[in-house]
Amino acid sequence: MDPVPALDEPLKKVLGPATAKVMAEHLGLHTVGDLLHHYPRRYEERGQLTHLADLPMDEHVTVVAQVADARLHTFASSRAPRGKGQRLEVTITDGSGRLQLVFFGAGVHKPHKELLPGTRAMFAGKVSVFNRRLQLAHPAYELLRGDAEETVETWAGALIPIYPATAKLESWKIGKALQTVLPSAQEAADPLPGPLREGRGLVTLPEALLKIHRPHTKADIEEARARLKWDEAFVLQVALARRRHADAQLPAVPRRPRPDGILAAFDDRLPFTLTEGQRKVSEEIFADLATDHPMHRLLQGEVGSGKTMVALRAMLAVVDAGGQAAMLAPTEVLAQQHHRSVTEMMGDLAQGGMLGGADDATKVVLLTGSMGAAARRQALLDLATGEAGIVIGTQALIEDKVQFHDLGLVVVDEQHRFGVEQRDALRGKGKQPPHLLVMTATPIPRTVAMTVFGDLETSVLDQLPAGRSPIASHVVPAADKPHFLARAWERVREEVEKGHQAYVVCPRIGDEEDGAKAKKKSPEDEAEKRPPLAVLDTAEQLARGPLAGLRVDVLHGRMPPDDKDAVMRRFAAGEVDVLVATTVIEVGVNVPNATAMVIMDADRFGVSQLHQLRGRVGRGSAPGLCLLVTEMPEASPARQRLNAVASTLDGFELSRIDLEQRREGDVLGQAQSGTRSSLRMLAVIDDEEVIAEAREEAARIVASDPDLERLPALRTALDALLDEEREQYLEKG
User: Fold this and answer.
1) Predicted pLDDT of residue 593
2) Are 141 and 115 in contact (CB under 8 A)?
3) Which of 244, 378, 406, 660 has its C-alpha lying 20 to 30 A from 62's C-alpha?
C-alpha cells in the first residue's frame, strides 16, 4: 500500500537533499510515506548473532557480530615502496562461523582504534572470496555500544531491523532515517473499514507501522505483518473489483452462434472429439458471448491442451452472429503459425468469396508488419468491408489504418507480452466494446490469477487431447558426466533415424557485438560466467561433429520474417532434421513429427520457459523426449530447478515452484512491466487465504458502494496505488 496525503512530505525536506537523492535513485523512495512503507527484510536479535556460515557470495549483506581479533600488517607495494603500506585484518565471529574484514591504506586508522576484540557491531559490505576465504573488504560498520544516547535511542529494543539496502545506503542509515519520520506514522489514514478491521482482530495502520519498524517482541512483528498484508491484498482486490464492476456496466452486442452456421459446420468436420475440458470451457465462453456486457475471460491451460481450438470455436461463434474476431499474437512467427493452423483446421470454411469455398465460409486474413503492400491493402479492405470474419496478426492490427466492419471478439495470445495500450487500442476498434478472451500458456497458480488477472473470469484446461504423448524429461549434467552429453546426441540421431525431427535450443543467437566481453574478468568469473551457448556456433559444431550428415538449420529472432517463415515451413514439411533455435519456438509452434528437444545451458532459462519449450515436442502420437543440458554442480539451486522441471509435467505445480524460488519483488513477473511492485509484505503463494478473503470483502464493499463514497480513506489509498504506472500494471495483468 502506498502513502496517503498526510505523508506526502518529500524526503528532501525531512532528511536533507543528499540522503533523499540516494533514497530516490536507489530505492525508489520519494516521500515520508514511501519510507514508512519500506519494511525491514528481517530482524537481528541483539542476543543472537547472524549466521556467518550462510553468507551468499557477491551479495550486499548486513551482519551483527563480535570482533575476535584484529591485526595490522605492513607491506611494500608500488604505492608504498618502503614497506609503508598498511592492511588491517579483523576476524569477526557469531558462533556459527568466522568472517574476515580487510581495510587498506589510510582507511585502517579508524577501525584499528574502534574494532577491538570483544567489540560488537553491525557490518555491511559485499561478500567476496580471497585465498579461498570469505571476506568483506572495507565494510561500513556501526558499533553497538548501547551507551551513547543516540545509539541507545537508535538501537532501542531487543530486535534490530535489517532493511533492504544498497551499497550507497546501509541498513542502519535507513533505520536512522526511519527514526526521524516514524512520528508521522500517527497521521496515516486507515484504509480498512473499521468493522472489517475489528472483525478480523487487526491493529490500526499507525500501530502496524510503529510495530514493524520498532518491535519490542516477535509478537509485535507478527501483528504488524498480518495487518500490512491485509492492506496490500485488500486495496489491490478493491481496485480489481471496481474494474469488474465497471466492465459489467458497459454495453456489448450479444453474439449467439446459429444452429446451422459456420461453427456447426466446423464441428461436424472435426476428425476427433473435443476433450471434456474443451467442451466445458467452450460452454462458459458461449454463455459469456451471449450476454449484453463484454466478456472478460482468461483461458489458461497446459502446454498442448488445445487452447487454440477453444479460441477458434469462440471466433467462429462470433462470425456466425455476424461479427468479426481478431487474434493478437506476440510475434510474426506465431501469427503466421496461427494463421496456417487455423486455415488448415477450417479447410474450405476459410475460403469465403473464393471458388470452392463452402456455403458458410468466411475469409481468414493475416496482418503483420512485414507484409507486402498489395497483400496488406487487400487484408485492410477485407476487414473494413466485413468480407474477412477472422483476422490474425501482430501489433500491426492496432495501427490507425486498420478499420473493422463489426469487431465482436478480441483474442489475445500470451497476454503478458501485451501492454494496456495495445489491448485497449484493439478493443477501441469495435463500435461497442468487443468481448475479450485472453489466453496464456503458462499455467498460473490460483492466487496469482486472483492477484494479477483479478478482473478476468478464469477458465482452465488441464487435460491433454487424446493422441498426445507423454514427454520424458531428463537432466544431462555435462560437466560431471560428459558421456551423458555424447549419449544425448546419439538419442537425437536415433529419433531422426526413426523418421522424426528434433529441436536444439540455445540461450543466445551468437552474432552479438563483442563489446560486452571487453570488461576484464577474473579467472573465477570466467569459469562461472562464460557466455551462454549460441545458436550459430552450436549449429556449426553439431553439423561438423555429433550430428554430421543430418540436415541442420537455424532459426532466431533477428532473421528477416520471410526467412524465418521459410525455415519453419521446411521444418514442418520434414525437410530439416534438426532445428537449432532460440526461444522464438517457445510458444505455439506445432510440428507433430518433432519428438526430441535438447536445451543447452538449460539453467539459463526460467522454469515456466522450460515448460513452454518442452511443450513443442510430444505433439504427435510418438512419445516426446526433452533433455536439459547444464554444467551447474549437483547441489546448486539451478540444478534443483532443473530437477523439478524434469520430475513433473504439471505446469501449475511448476509455476508454484517458479514463484517460490523468485524474490518477493519479482512475484508478479512481467505483470509489473518495470514498475515497482505494489506488494511489499504480501507473498502471493504463501498468503493464499488472505488474498481469497480480501477478494470476498472487496467484492462485498464495491457491490454496495462502487464509488467508495462512504470510505474516503480507502479511496485515497486506492488513488495512491493506482497512480498512472500502477493503473497500467493492473491493466497489463
Assistant:
1) 92
2) yes
3) 660
Using alpha carbons, select from 10, 3, 50, 60 the residue that is nearest to residue 30: 10
Reported in sequence order, the residue ranges of 498-601 that DSSP labels E, i.e. its strands, are 501-505, 552-555, 578-581, 594-599
What's the rounded Cα separation, in Å, for the pair 246 and 291? Answer: 15
What does the alpha-carbon distance between residue 216 and residue 373 come to, in Å, rounded to a whole number? 71
Contacts of 520 (CB under 8 A, 6+ apart): none
Distance of CA 226 to the CA centre of its chain: 25
CA atoms within 13 A on the CB side of 121: 20
Q: State how far the alpha carbon of 631 is from the alpha carbons of 113, 241, 602, in Å.
A: 47, 47, 9
* Exposure of 37 in the CB half-sphere (CA atoms within 13 A): 30
**pLDDT at position 674:** 32
Between CA 622 and CA 302 the distance in angstroms is 19
CA-to-CA distance for 393 and 401, rounded, in angstroms? 14
**Can you tell me the distance from the alpha carbon of 334 to that of 690, in angstroms, rounded to the nearest whole number?**
38
CA atoms within 13 A on the CB side of 158: 9
Q: What is the pLDDT of residues 30-50, one digit of tens each?
A: 889 889 989 998 887 654 545
Return the pLDDT at 678.
Answer: 57
- The total number of residues written for the chain in this structure: 733
Task: Mention every residue, 6+ apart, whose C-beta is less than 8 A from residue 374.
Answer: none
CA torsion 23-24-26-28 (nearest 10°) is 110
Pick out the chain residues at pLDDT < 70.
1-6, 45-51, 53-54, 58-59, 76-83, 145-158, 355-356, 414-423, 446-447, 450-453, 465-467, 511-530, 586-589, 660-679, 721-733
Q: Could you please report the per-residue DSSP string of 301-318?
A: E-TTS-HHHHHHHHHHHH
Measure the CA–CA gap between 454 and 233, rounded to whole angstroms.
11
SS3 632: coil
Predicted pLDDT at 667? 40
E-state strands within 462-500: 471-477
CA distance 139 to 660: 31
pLDDT confidence of residue 47? 46
Nearest-CA neighbor of 458 among 470, 469, 444, 468?
Answer: 444
- pLDDT given for residue 517 in this prediction: 44
What pLDDT sits at residue 390? 95
The pairing of beta strand 120-130 with beta strand 60-75: antiparallel
Separation between Cα atoms, residue 539 and residue 197, nearest integer Å = 62
CA–CA gap between residue 327 and residue 409 (Å, rounded): 8
Q: What is the pLDDT of residue 416?
A: 52
